[in-house]
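DME family drug/metabolite transporter
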Amino acid sequence: MLPALAVLLAAVCFGTTGTAQAFAPGGAEPLSVGAARILVGGTLLALIAVGSRMRGHTPRSQPIPRRPTRGRLPSWSLVAVGAAGVVAYQPAFFAGTSANGVAIGTVVALGSAPVVTGLLAWPLTRRAPRARWSIATVIALAGVVLISGVLTPPGAGSASGVDLPGLLASLGAGLSYAVYTLASKALLDRGATPSGTMGAVFGVAAAASLPLLLTTDWSWLLTPGGLAAALWLGVVTTALAYVLFGWGLARLPAATVATLTLAEPLTAALLGTLLLGEVLAPVAAVGLAVLAAGILLLTLPTRNRAGLSPEPGRPHSAVSQDVSAQP
């Protein structure tokens, strides 16, 4: 339960991202906000990783063979791919929430992520996701569809005038999320530690975000509201959230983690309604309950067919490397 709860708590932190952006000054562009978020959060994660190793709390990674197997990317490539996914996610996510609101933008972005992650993980690991993940994901995505309002007739109280470019931006954010989740999982499966993995991926992303930030109008950072928004986005929704996320990802399959993070759109939808005055149709309230049911199904503890814990002597990390393993 603890890895699942860690991912859920991380998802709750993620879920405040769109709301924090909404409270940022009006002149803050999505690209600028995203770059500032990763610059602050990625730098903190890199410092945490360095500090952990200097204190001796982070064990060394398992050695990687000098001659990688066919089709296996070197670790530095995985870090680069993961960092690219992190950088691409930011402007796409914020553009989607700016166009269609925090609730719908977050729901579409994170609602698409589990499906993309599971489908990409399938050929990468040569293992099909098991029935429990599939059922839980279908239930959760049904809730996502209900929340998005696409099935609600016009004039029935749903959010009208969904912006197509904004919708595509949110879908791009979901794809970017899948990319950096799978890249991070691959590093963890090779023996990298959670803090080292998050520090490397987000540290590189932070270095790439600095020139991006400087190409935008970053004067909003000089205002009290802008500084507060940037610190919340960097410290809470990035550094703290990804410490929890990395710890859970090291112990759970990537597809399972992607489904658990659907607690993010659940949180975002509630915050958008309660704090930002965004209106959700009555059917969206049903969608929230359905989404929560799918997450709960995936979170509840389970036993294997023999009703036992993993075999004695078999390390838990070996179990977690199976993308089809149960949470």
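thats it. Residues 75-100 form the longest helix (26 residues). The two ends are 8 Å apart (CA to CA). bye
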